[in-house]
Amino acid sequence: MLLARFMAKTTLILADDHAIVRAGIRNALSGSTDFTIIAEVDSGPTLFAALRQFSADCLLIDVTMPSFEPFAAVKEIRKQFPAMKILIVSAYDDDIYVQGLLQLGANGYHLKDQPLSDLRLAIQRVMAGERWVSSRLLERLDQAPPPVVEAELPKLTGRQREMLHLLYKGLDNYHIAAQLDLSIKTVENHLTGLYRLLDVRSRLEAVNYIIQHPELLGLSPSTLPPAPDTRFIPRSKQTMLIVDDNERYRQQLSRMVLSINDQVQILEADNTGRAVQLAGQHRPRLILIDVVLGDENGIQCVQRVTKISPTSRILLFSAYPDSEFHREGLAAGASAFLDKKNLDSAALRQILCTEASMFSRALLASLTVLPILLLWPAPGNGNSSPVFYLATDRSFTEGETPYVNLES
User: Fold this and answer.
1) Looking at residue 39, what is its pLDDT?
2) Residue 37 contacts residue 29 (beta carbons within 8 Å)
3) Are strands 296-297 and 264-269 parallel, antiparallel or unpaired?
4) Euclidean distance between CA atoms 307 and 200, whole angstroms
5) Using alpha carbons only, what angle is made at residue 24 by residues 19 and 30, rounded to the nearest 5 degrees?
6) How remote is the C-alpha of 402 from its chain's centroid?
7) How many CB atoms are closer than 10 A to CB 286?
8) pLDDT in tens, 3-12
9) Radius of gyration for the alpha carbons in the chain, expressed in angstroms and rounded
10) Which residues are paired to 53 by β-bridges?
């Protein structure tokens, strides 16, 4: 009888790159007699390995993990495992994620900031054949989204596919020319035609296109190797370092920065050791560091990077609102603390382009005060308008307000 009851449980695979999040979900489900977690993974490659090894009824999956592109991956998972339910569990409430992933085959989308008791209900609903969407998202979604019309991928020649593969590996025009025994001018002409064919404007956009459509190179999301961890822009004197353990998010930030200023040299690191190494080598003028770096502490990363590159301006960001992170981050040497969900193109433009372009005036080096986007209203601010606190070593006199309402 006990064996029969155990076998009747819904088997789950839990995919999230943060151990503390997996532990919270595991604890929330541990008291239930309906579910059992048979595998936990923390990246794209380990996810596909677990899916092949274990036969699960339902996959609980975050959209941001190392070496993981959610749209291509969900499409591939749905194709390979049509009977398995897919429940997205994410902190991101962006319509592109929600609608796109549901249309590609996800059975539900659950927000991490909702009660864990709702997660149990979400699993039950999708296992019953229903679609689950967190209540906060419902009003923004059409209840019956139109079917996705798959755009036909461009037809590449063997030479174009070979060149695209070398570009994805991070080779510049000189090394592509040497590898293929071509002139640099011929490579430039080929790449111009290739960009036009893919409808992209830069190497970074081409790499992102490959991540979304690995079949162009005859690969699947599970076999696509990680993209290089740096993006060098020739002739650039302005350097930025992005430190985040999620490769896709780093690339997303890189793309947004380059859309604002395409002469920025962008470096990427996924852990503290690599960040310290790049900071020591390049002395970047601006460094963005995630508070959570896998099992590492981003605040400790700030301390180490500050020692090796004291002239760099450091911004901490996080998807998890926490006043203690804010306090400890500033004490460690960060100039600002930002909400990761609000770090979009508009916010980056405000950071990079304040007063006739920050980058053209030595980036942030001339500033002594930098705004900090708070995750809660300022004291005495009765409305819900976003506010900025100012990080500065200047003391405020009585009656002064050390924050600015963005709507004023």
Assistant:
1) 94
2) yes
3) unpaired
4) 39
5) 120
6) 31
7) 23
8) 444 456 899 9
9) 23
10) none
